[in-house]
Amino acid sequence: MKIRATLVAAALFCAFPANAAVIVEEIAFSATATGPLPLHNGVFTIQYDNVTNIASLLDIDFSIGSTVFSTANAGLAYAGNDVLLGRSYFLGGTQTGVNGLSSNTNDFIFHFSPYTLTARAFSYSTVGFNSIASGNVALSEAGAVPEPATWATMLLGFGLIGGAMRSALRRPKLAVAPA
Fold it and tell me: What's the pTM value of the predicted model, to 2 decimals?
């Protein structure tokens, strides 16, 4: 009986969602813009702390012309609280800094919020194009990774259900004797 009470207490304790501040999210983006390259699609993975607003770029799959962007030549910068986006960041190539863009380089930048999956204008430049082109960008969640606490809670729940079913099979059934 004490073991069962301990298991129930542990299940209740673990049933509450984790309030982790660090979130890892994979975000896909699709942009349409003016200029010689009208369509842009990519995916990036960020890790951000929703308490301190510190974020880092973990991975990016995107290219413009012959430039393939990676964590070595792309980055994030905290943009502050935007009226439309709330807490937001800049994502861009680092040829002229994450917050800057120069013509005639393979580079890009856009302003987004991982909290609301909304973004402002996408801007890019490419070699041989002496201007900066702009357009619209749309974000979508590419895939979510559950936290370890979520997996532990789920496994504990399955274990408790299995244990309850097994103990129900072992209990003697009450039978009514004919009078």
Answer: 0.66
